[in-house]
Specification:
two-stranded antiparallel ribbon, mainly alpha
């Protein structure tokens, strides 16, 4: 039982260190603070799994930097590719895209980040694992149980909330798509009818214009109702995900995703203005 708790603690330690690296790296690139990661908390699980894989598989190679670099680079690249594939199949969306980078594979992995993973593998084995091991030896057994259990519960709740919210995203995007498509078809029908009506009677032309304006009003009202139905928690999650993964793309609803981004930003800006007053 104690060994399982230690594995969990190693996982969270590596996940936190990965989150710190990702956040600093992306914040520098974006020139603004970025809460990087799939989850709301300060952890990147892929780094946790990568760290465990590296230290347990490559631990015996400690001191052999070249082998650590090469094997760690390959192992972590495979892990990133699998993670990208799983997220894409689960949420029908691409979370990151390296298509613009040289030497990439399906936009999921690229040589630049593979080299970085090789370097981080050396850091994990040579610099992080020894003090982590010392920490485990210093912590009392009961403290390990409580700490690992508490972190696991928080992690599980965060994971559930994020997955649930992201699975709902496709439903929201489909609602936007179907609603806008219905009103767009009705608008196009009225636009086609306006020409012959205008040629016949002025009264009918005005009536057609009225229907056209009414449908435009309905479209705006429907968008506003949908915006209000997106809860504060959902807005927070969507906003965080979009900022953490700027290349996030939906396979089926990219147009609606862009519209949702605008809706969320408009709502956030409106709330910020209210708070300033």
């Amino acid at each position: 039982m104690e060994s399982i708790c230690e594995v969990l603690l190693y996982f969270f330690l590596f996940s936190f260190c990965g989150w710190v690296c990702e956040t600093i790296f992306c914040s520098i690139l974006e020139r603004k603070p970025v809460n990087r990661g799939f989850l709301s908390g300060p952890v990147c699980p892929v780094y946790g799994f990568g760290g465990l894989m590296v230290v347990y598989l490559l631990g015996p190679l400690q001191g052999n930097y070249s082998v650590l670099f090469l094997v760690g680079m390959v192992a972590c690249t495979v892990l990133e590719y699998i993670t990208s594939w799983i997220l894409e199949k689960l949420f029908h969306a691409k979370w990151w895209d390296y298509s613009q980078n040289h030497f990439n594979t399906n936009g999921r992995v690229c040589l630049t980040f593979s080299l970085i993973f090789g370097f981080l593998s050396i850091v994990a084995v040579e610099l992080l694992y020894p003090p982590f091991t010392a920490l485990m030896g210093w912590l009392p057994r009961v403290a390990k149980y409580w700490l690992a259990g508490g972190l696991l519960v928080i992690f599980a709740l965060d994971l559930y909330a994020t997955i649930y919210t992201m699975l709902q995203l496709n439903g929201k995007l489909e609602e936007i798509r179907s609603g806008m498509e219905e009103l767009r078809q009705r608008l196009e029908q009225v636009q086609v009818e306006r020409i012959p009506l205008a040629q016949r009677l002025e009264e009918l032309r005005e009536d057609s214009s009225g229907k056209y304006d009414e449908l435009k009003k309905q479209m705006k009202e429907r968008a506003q109702r949908l915006e209000k139905r997106i809860s504060r928690t959902q807005r927070f999650q969507y906003k965080r995900i979009m900022r953490a993964f700027p290349n996030f793309k939906s396979e089926k609803y990219q147009e609606q995703l862009e519209r949702l981004k605008v809706m969320i930003e408009r709502r956030v800006n409106k709330n910020e203005k209210k708070e300033e007053k």
